[in-house]
Design goal:
This protein is of the alpha+beta class. It has a single domain, classed as Nuclear Transport Factor 2, Chain: A, CATH 3.10.450. The chain is 26% helix and 35% strand. It has a 4-stranded antiparallel sheet with strand order 1-2-3-4. A hairpin with a 6-residue loop joins strand 1 and strand 2. The termini are far apart. The relative contact order is 0.17. The mean pLDDT is 96. The chain binds zinc ion (ZN). The site of zinc ion has 7 residues, from helix 2. The site of zinc ion (ZN) has 7 residues, from helix 2.
């Protein structure tokens, strides 16, 4: 279990935050936990996790090589979760608004997204990016 800080900047050790989700020893109970663990998967280069947590219908189109290259080419510096709606353990869907910061070719960039999550057979999945209102 890793005691270094979690890449998702929760303030918790990696081993007490996203690591159990990335290794499959636990499943995220909320949309925010899934969102955070997907960010950590980018930061750690765990591309298979990004595919596994994608809504099943979209998994066949997942571009492993392009995603792996994007994850590896950037240096992931932090995550801010701005807003969560629903996405609690008792919900069936939810949204998370977040900003992920990363260095790309020496420039600090921000990826801001309103993500839609849905639950299927008790498991949370990332569905798609929604337009922000
Ligand atoms: Zn985390």
């Amino acid at each position: 279990m890793s005691s270094s800080p979690c890449p998702c900047k929760s303030g918790l050790p990696f081993g007490a935050c996203c690591e159990p989700f990335l290794t499959g020893s636990a499943m995220p109970q909320t949309a925010e936990q899934l969102m955070r663990s997907r960010y950590s998967a980018f930061a750690k280069g765990k591309i298979s996790y990004l595919k596994e947590t994608l809504w099943p219908k979209f998994q066949p189109e997942f571009d492993f090589a392009t995603t792996a290259k994007w994850a590896a080419d950037n240096h992931w510096t932090g995550l801010s979760v701005m807003k969560c709606e629903r996405g609690e353990p008792t919900d069936r869907d939810g949204t998370v608004l977040f900003e992920a910061k990363y260095l790309a070719g020496g420039a600090l960039k921000t990826h801001r997204e309103l993500s839609h999550f849905r639950k299927k057979s008790g498991r949370w999945y990332y569905v798609e990016a929604l337009p922000e209102e």
